[in-house]
Amino acid sequence: MDGILGKGRKSGANCAAIHVADVERVQADLLPDDDYVSVASLLRHFGDPTRVKLLHALESRELCVSDLAVILDITKSAVSHHLNALKLSKLVRARRDGQIVYYSLDDDHVAMILKTGFEHMRE
C-alpha cells in the first residue's frame, strides 16, 4: 500500500491514508494548535443564548448595562458578567461617558459572525 501513516499523532488514527495527496495538502494548510484553541475559546461565547442575544442587541447601537438589562429582562449583574466575558474575548468594547459605560460590538467581524449564524440557522 502506498498510503502514509498519520504523522505526529500521540493518539488517534493508526491507519494509512487512502488519498495521500489530499492528506498532504490539508496537513500543509493546518494551523498551529494554539490557533484552534483561540477560535474555540471565541466561539464558545456563541454557545450561550444570552450572550448571543446581547451581541445581537449591540449590533445596531451602543447600549449601557441598565438598558441591556431591560432589553434582555435579566439583572444588571448578569449583564455585567456576560459583558465582561465578551469584552475579554474582544467581542465587545466599552466606552465611558461620565459614570455611564456604553458597550458596542468590537468590530464588523462580530456582526458578520452573528449574521452568518442566523442565515445558517434559517437555511
Give structural attributes:
mainly alpha, Arc Repressor Mutant, subunit A, 2 domains, three-stranded antiparallel β-sheet, 6 helices
Shape-level CATH architecture of the largest domain: Orthogonal Bundle
- List the total number of helices: 6
- The rounded distance between the terminal residues' Cα atoms is 42 Å
Number of distinct beta strands: 3
Tell me the structural class.
mainly alpha
β content, as a range?
A: 5-15%
Computed CA radius of gyration, to the nearest angstrom: 21 Å
CATH homologous superfamily title of the largest domain: Winged helix-like DNA-binding domain superfamily/Winged helix DNA-binding domain
Shape: elongated
**Count of separate structural domains:** 2
CATH topology of the largest domain: Arc Repressor Mutant, subunit A
Q: How is the biggest beta sheet arranged?
A: 3 strands, antiparallel
User: What is the CATH class of the largest domain?
Assistant: Mainly Alpha
Order of helices and strands: HHHEHHEEH
Strand order of the largest sheet: 1-3-2
The residue ranges in which pLDDT falls below 50 over 5 or more consecutive positions are none
Average pLDDT works out at: 92
> How much helix, percentage-wise, in residues?
40-55%
